[in-house]
Amino acid sequence: MATASHQTVRSTPTPATGPIQCRPWCEDGDGHPRELFAEDQCCTSVEGRFVVSREESWLMVDGSTRPASAAVCAGQRPGEAAHVAVVTHNDQGVTLTPEEARVMARQLVHFAWVAEQGVALAAADRAEAGR
Ligand SMILES: [Zn+2]
Question: What is the 14 CA–ligand 1 centroid distance (Å)?
């Protein structure tokens, strides 16, 4: 059985040569002039964060608890196209193209409906969810 593999190739960091032109939605918007390496001059939007009630709450140092959460934001690394990042409370996540994010959003809405209905999906519904 063939398995998919993914390997991240890291090269030697490139020294930053000054501020970059930030994306209009960049939360910083200053060109990231304090980053030492060009690879760190990444634009990130304001995030949308929401509580994930089915995950365990976080125990804080002071003994209090904080509900688990997840966040979604737009980002762009130098030399790459803009992306959408989904990050969970335990720093796991996925980086998506805008179109992949739209597919994920449609599937989330669809399967939320399925979970609430408690009905089996017909083949046509599964195909529709995949669009
Ligand atoms: Zn920026």
Answer: 17
Q: What is the pLDDT of residues 12-51, one digit of tens each?
A: 889 999 999 999 999 999 999 999 999 999 999 999 999 9
Q: Cα of 21 to ligand 1 centre, how many Å?
A: 7
DSSP line for 43-101: EEPPPEEEE-TTSPPEEPTTS-EE--EEEEEEEE-TTS--EEEEE-TTS-EEEE-HHHH
Please count the residues of the chain: 131
pTM, full prediction: 0.75
- Hey, what amino acid is at 106? R
Determine contact, residues 107/86, Cβ cutoff 8 Å. Answer: no
